[in-house]
Design a protein that fits this description.
By secondary structure, the chain is mainly α. The protein has one domain (20-247): Rhodopsin 7-helix transmembrane proteins (Rhopdopsin 7-helix transmembrane proteins, Up-down Bundle), CATH 1.20.1070. It has 10 helices and no strands. The protein has helices at residues 2-11, 28-50, 56-86, 91-114, 121-142, 148-167, 170-175, 180-196, 199-209, 216-247. Helix 4 packs antiparallel against helix 5, helix 6 runs antiparallel to helix 9 and helix 8 runs antiparallel to helix 10 (216-247). The protein is globular, with a radius of gyration of 18 Å.
């Protein structure tokens, strides 16, 4: 109940974020903004409520999952208003969201391993650095500060570096000493990082490499899909293993 009261008081603040007139049923991108916003709110409430069901070592992981969806929900209130009112890509709002949530997502790998086995602190630093480089490069390309292609390549290099550390480096070594449930969750999370996160560069390419930056509809539709899959499903995997391990 206390989480619902806190969420209710926060949600009541950004009334301006719902401005922009009526949503056109044929505006599939606008509809996707609304759907993702609702799903993020529901996920945030779910993760914080379920936090009380798991053992102490998993509470931080579920808290981070709730923070990821909660921060994203807040920014989607702004982004959907920008889209419906102007039809323009809310680039600044989206990257502020990603700058907060993507490092939290990638750090979840460290948290889930730390809850079950010994893992080097250097893994945390490597993943955090890689995620920041990936985001900064993407923003500089989308904002027009850097040419789109070099920024894209640098961001992709940072993404591949994180995959390497998690799949072949320190992350995988720590995973091999964890419980079967944690290993299963780790592998499922890796699939999201490899397959789910691949949706983001597809959106970038559709807007800035294949197109000229004016393909706002396709760009935002793809980004919204990616956020839905990667933020919510990622958290649900952590919730599943947390409940399973706590019950055992």
């Amino acid at each position: 109940m206390k989480y619902l009261l806190i969420l209710g008081s926060v949600i009541a603040l950004p009334s301006f974020a719902a401005s922009g007139g009526d949503l056109d049923a044929s505006d599939y991108t606008g509809v996707s903004f609304w759907l993702v916003t609702a799903a993020l709110l529901a996920s945030t409430v779910f993760f914080f409520i379920e936090r009380d069901r798991v053992s102490a070592k998993w509470k931080t992981s579920l808290t981070v999952s709730g923070l990821v969806t909660g921060i994203a929900f807040w920014h989607y209130l702004y982004m959907r208003g920008v889209w419906v009112e102007t039809g323009e890509t809310p680039t600044v709002f989206r990257y502020i969201d990603w700058l907060l949530t993507v490092p939290l997502l990638i750090v979840e790998f460290y948290l889930i391993l730390a809850a079950a086995t010994n893992v080097a602190g250097s893994l945390f630093k490597k993943l955090l650095l890689g995620s920041i480089v990936m985001l900064v490069a993407g923003y500089l390309g989308e904002a027009g500060v850097w040419p789109a292609m070099p920024a894209f390549l640098l961001g992709m290099a940072a993404w591949i570096y994180m995959i390497y550390e998690l799949w072949m480096g320190e992350g995988k070594a720590a995973c091999n000493t964890a419980s079967p449930a944690v290993q299963s969750a780790y592998n499922a999370m890796m699939k999201i990082i490899i397959v789910g996160w691949a949706i983001y560069p597809l959106g970038y390419a559709s807007g800035y490499l294949i197109g000229d930056g004016s393909s706002a509809m396709n760009l935002n539709l793809i980004y919204n899909l990616a956020d839905f899959v990667n933020k919510i499903l990622f958290g649900l995997i952590i919730w599943h293993v947390a409940v399973k391990e706590s019950s055992a």
